[in-house]
Amino acid sequence: MAAAAVPAGPRGGRVMGNMREFNSDSLGFIERCAREFGDVVTTRFLYVPALFLFHPDHVEYVLATGSKNFIKAANFRSPFFRRVAGNGLVSSDGDFWRRQRRLAQPAFHRDRVEAYARTMVAFAEAALEGWRDGGTIEVHEEMVLLTQRVVAQTLFSADVSSDSREIGEALSNIVRPFASQTTLKWILDNRLPTPAHLRFNRDVRRIDRFVYRLIAERRASGEDTGDLLSMLLRARDEDGSGMTDKQLRDELMTIFLAGHETTAVVLTWAWYLLAQNLEAEERLAAELSEVLGGRAPTAEDVPRLRYADWVVKESLRLYPPAWGVGREALRECEVGGYRVPKGMQVLAFPWATHRDPRWFAAPESFRPERWGEESISKLPKYAYFPFGGGPRLCIGNYFATMEAVLILSTIARRFRLRLVPGQRIELMPAISLRPKGGMLMKLEGV
Fold first, then answer.
1. What does R_g of the chain's alpha carbons equal in angstroms?
2. Residue 11, domain member (yes or no)
3. 186 band by pLDDT with thresholds 50, 70 and 90
4. Is 43:315 a contact under the CB 8 Å cutoff?
């Protein structure tokens, strides 16, 4: 049976296509597409057609079983994204990506990640020294600063405590323009020296100075600390040459950005969800009391902190940091009975698939206990994919989830966090799913 030519989709404007509707409410537009048009939906952004995929089987084909037919989506080749990530693991493809992935993989093996646990907990406890009962914090900023320090120390053996606020500010500025990827402003800012373009490059240079300083200091010392930076510095091509500073910069920038951003975002939304679900908060407190008995958590405790793990999984389900995953067809193929021509942009959305009632009962509800139910074992494999999947499954997925469980447990045994009344919590779907404008929370000592 021949593949159908074009699936249905929202009409859109004659020139702009679906750009305006997507940009005004990206997540709402995605939900409407899934609700009204089914599992494979045709959309258009100016002159660029794209397929939205919502069924786990179709997502699995693109990310895993048929992954050879796809490369990273066009937005990963935009000047803005390339200026940040260069040709690092997130943006590269082909043999170069396979080589870089192979070089970085040992730093993320389970045994090595578990050895980072002590550092993760120590930094979390150090952050709490400045917290006071009755005090107010901007929780996303706090989580960003904390996870930055963890990633820098564990993967690069670097102390960023004196730079963390400057780096955090620059990273926030860098992330913000990606919330407008489907606007004419984004197109112009990518191609012309607009004020926004100049500001963006200025902020990237601030991060560059930090990364290149790490590289220069390590090259000068010649020290092999066994961390990711040391592994990359030791790597040699067939001709015996090592990685250039630019290659090292691209990998370190990518891993530093992705390595702290995912955990910071999932922790932020975990605090938000726990503050509104006191029964879940009580269950978490009971588990921490039983398992830890007043002491700090360790790597050995992680398998026993089952409810804390469920809180992290459920937060990733409802607020996946990587809310959309994009690919471009490398050759003509078929998805869900539809022809996918070479060059077609193909997008899958954890935001929508994770909230589909076909796969999750009461999908809008925060129910960490669902992860202990038998029904979860019957889920289609790609009904839940917060870290992507297939060959390009996020290299740091275990690092991020273990770190989130340990930091969540370290903080929750000392404080409960309450939303400051009167603020409007909005989503900012940029590179990750950040809270727009931050999130103020009041501290209650336990």
1. 22
2. no
3. low
4. no
**Does residue 8 lie in a domain region?**
no
Q: What is the pLDDT of residues 129-177, one digit of tens each?
A: 999 999 999 999 999 999 999 999 988 888 877 777 777 777 777 766 6
1 occurs within a structural domain: no
Q: How confident is the model at residue 236 (pLDDT cuts 50, 70, 90)?
A: confident
- The boundaries of the domain holding residue 320 are 19-445
State the total domains in the chain. Answer: 1
pLDDT of 20-69, one tens digit each? Answer: 899 889 999 999 999 999 999 999 998 899 999 999 999 999 999 999 99
Looking at the predicted structure, is the pLDDT value of residue 419 above 60? yes
Q: Is residue 9 part of a domain?
A: no
Exposure of 107 by Cβ count < 10 A (0-12 exposed, 13-18 middle, 19+ buried)?
A: buried
Burial (0-12, 13-18, 19+ Cβ within 10 Å), 231: middle
CATH number at residue 374: 1.10.630.10
